[in-house]
Specification:
By secondary structure, this protein is an alpha+beta fold. The chain has 18 helices and 28 strands. The protein has four domains: 242 residues, 2-Layer Sandwich (BirA Bifunctional Protein, domain 2), CATH 3.30.930; 55 residues, no CATH class; 71 residues, Signal recognition particle alu RNA binding heterodimer, srp9/1; 94 residues, Rossmann fold (3-Layer(aba) Sandwich). Helices cover 31% and strands 32% of the residues. The strands form eight sheets. It has a nine-stranded mixed beta sheet with strand order 3-10-11-21-16-15-14-12-13. Helix 12 crosses helix 13. It is elongated.
Length: 554
RNA sequence: GCGGAUAUGAUCUAGUGGUUAUGAUAUCGGCUUCCCAAGCCGGUCACACGGGUUCGAAUCCCGUUAUCCGCACCA
């Protein structure tokens, strides 16, 4: 098979220190990759660029929560059910089914023995039952510890802190919270290299909004920006404003983050021609989502690959945690003036309720205090699934006027969720260029300056001591200014340029004999190979400006 | 998970049941040269792992692992 771009990139990435297969000296394991020195720096640069968009520009706050997540959290969020499927295969029509779709709640072993599990299509007896559980389980503590999972997404760490974060944000909506970190999925069969890993990095933003005001404060500034949307039938080349007015995207808030994502990806260096947004069909939506747009990037080998999901998770998660934990996950929509409501308030008489209901009296009291007294008839409450009648002499009714400052509601969530490793791979693939120089194959990674792992090569033209010491000074000045450099005195200058081109270093600074007298150096541009003579003192400033990576026109 | 193919230095690769296992690139050292992968000399680094057959296995057989292709799966 001829080498395609994926093979070439894999080879280059390993050879030059971007990506290594993990644990290779012990045989390796599918779905795990190490980032070498250049890969780790590239990943850090991508994450920091992401922070510039989501934290600095969009005002989200960043938190950090454990990757080991308590069973209860993922039970409440639906992941325990949704990620654990027992699946059986049909040997005849080669289809797989969830066991529970076929036999309901019958124990599986029994059903297998009795050959009750038959293919819904052709009636053949199904075989090979295997659990498809995408979460890694573990136990916290020794012995009867508490069950836990490695998190399948960082989002739950944000949801479970909602009440604290809402207060941090001084009880105002909208606000966004981000987290960058590892997620884990025990993929059945990882393929496609780093595009499908079992441990992977994600950057997620959970933006909490009022479901009645699904907008974004900066939406007006982007209404005329173009965007390419594919709804599985038609490709719409529209403006962000049109996307919303024509209901291709169903809210301004969602559309805003579609645009922000686009802006981030293009700044990071994805090829606009290999980039689109695609809407999830209703049958591919996650269990928590009501609408989802994927940013898809095109790979020459793998086709269109989802790298970012921008989902409207509605109130799903906060509601789930509210139900399961009992902690208030509401926000308040303030009225212009507090509303005054007359209410027939119940005041329980504990001296009657206590002896009557014993240990249940406390629960009954709590329920009664939230209830409206019936205008007529008897009062009943439901405690532990039992309905009990409360005698008239066990409570008083008083008519009170209650002031309500606003309406309670569960916020909705817009979630842009980025697969960092996928973005990283695509930045390599989209920027991988082959040219031929003097009949030799020559490769260039045309990374934008803001994400390139090394910003500048620093080269004395010869290994003359005088040149080397000036170059060393320039090198340390740059490093003092947080600019990553690669200092190299060996080999010909062409070879040194070539080495930098292959790993995507945008600039090389060369110190030659003239530098000693005119205090100028040469800056060489990777993409044009053009050279510019500039004063030594100006270099830090020039490079800092280049790294700033202003947003491209698109 | 099922079926097929593959596995030799960091990379690409030659090779045979029998001495010390090719060659190139890269890398390191030396000489030389110095603005786009120059040359010469020298050095480091490999038969995926485990078992079997055999006097002898990197080579043949089996298993494992990984990778690639197809199927299935894929918030």
């Amino acid at each position: 098979m001829p080498q395609d771009i994926y093979d070439k990139i894999s080879t280059m990435a390993k050879r030059r220190g971007f990506i290594y297969p993990s644990f290779e000296i012990y045989g390796g394991i599918a779905g795990f990759y190490d980032y070498g020195p250049l890969g780790a720096q590239l990943k850090l640069n991508i994450e920091n660029l992401w922070r510039r968009f989501f934290v600095l520009k969009d005002n989200c706050v960043e938190i950090s929560t454990p990757t080991i997540t308590l069973f209860e959290v993922l039970k409440a969020s639906g992941h325990v059910e949704e990620f654990t499927d027992l699946t059986v295969d049909c040997p005849k029509c080669k289809k797989s089914f969830k066991v529970e779709d076929i036999i309901g709640s019958t124990p599986v072993e029994e059903a297998l023995k009795e050959k009750k599990i038959k293919c819904l299509g052709c009636g053949t007896i199904l075989t090979n039952p295997h659990p498809v559980n995408l979460m890694f389980g573990t136990t916290i503590g020794i012995g009867d510890g508490r069950a836990a999972f490695l998190r399948p997404e960082t989002a739950q760490g944000i949801f479970t802190n909602f009440h604290l974060l809402y207060r941090y944000n001084r009880e105002r909506l909208p606000f966004g919270v981000v987290q960058i970190g590892k997620g884990y999925r025990n993929e059945i069969s990882p393929r496609q290299g780093t595009l499908r890993q079992r441990e992977f990095s994600m950057a997620e933003a959970e933006v909490f909004i009022d479901p009645k005001i699904k907008t974004h404060p900066k939406f007006p500034s982007i209404v005329n920006e173009p965007i390419k949307l594919f709804d599985n039938e038609t490709e719409h080349n529209v403006t962000v404003g049109e996307a919303v007015s024509r209901h291709i995207i169903n809210s301004q808030a969602l559309a805003y983050y579609v645009h922000l994502t686009s802006s981030f990806l293009l700044t990071a260096g994805v090829d606009p021609k290999k980039f689109r947004f695609r809407k999830h069909a209703s049958d591919e939506l996650a269990h928590y989502a009501t609408e989802c747009w994927d940013a898809e990037l095109y790979s020459e080998r793998f086709g269109w690959i989802e790298c970012v999901g921008i989902a409207d998770r509605s109130a799903y998660d906060l509601n789930a945690h509210l139900q399961a934990s009992g902690v208030d996950m509401y926000a308040v929509r303030k009225y212009d003036e507090p509303k005054v409501v007359k209410r027939r308030k119940i005041t329980p008489k504990m001296d009657v309720l206590g002896p009557l209901f014993k240990q249940e009296a406390g629960k009954i009291k709590a329920i009664l205090e939230t209830m409206e007294a019936p205008a007529k008839g008897s009062l009943t409450v439901t405690v532990d699934k039992k309905t009990v009648k409360i005698p008239d002499n066990a409570y008083d009714v008083t008519e009170v006027e209650e002031k309500t400052p606003g309406e309670k509601f569960i916020p909705n969530v817009i979630e842009p969720s980025f697969g960092i490793d996928r973005v990283l791979y695509f930045l390599i693939e989209h920027n991988y260029k082959e040219v031929s120089k003097k009949d030799e194959e020559y490769t260039i990674l045309s990374f934008p300056a803001c994400i390139a792992p090394i910003t500048a090569g620093v080269f004395p033209l010869t290994d003359d001591e005088k040149l080397v010491s000036v170059a060393e000074q320039i090198n340390s000045d740059l490093r003092d200014a947080y600019i990553h450099t690669y200092f190299d005195t060996t080999g010909t200058i062409g070879r040194r340029y070539a080495r930098m081109d292959e790993v995507g270093t945008p600039f090389c600074i060369t110190i030659d004999h003239d530098t000693l007298s005119d205090h100028q150096v040469t800056i060489r541009d990777r993409d044009t190979t053009e050279q510019q003579r500039v004063p030594m003192k100006a270099i830090v400033g020039i490079l800092k400006e280049k790294i700033a990576c202003s947003a491209p026109v698109h």
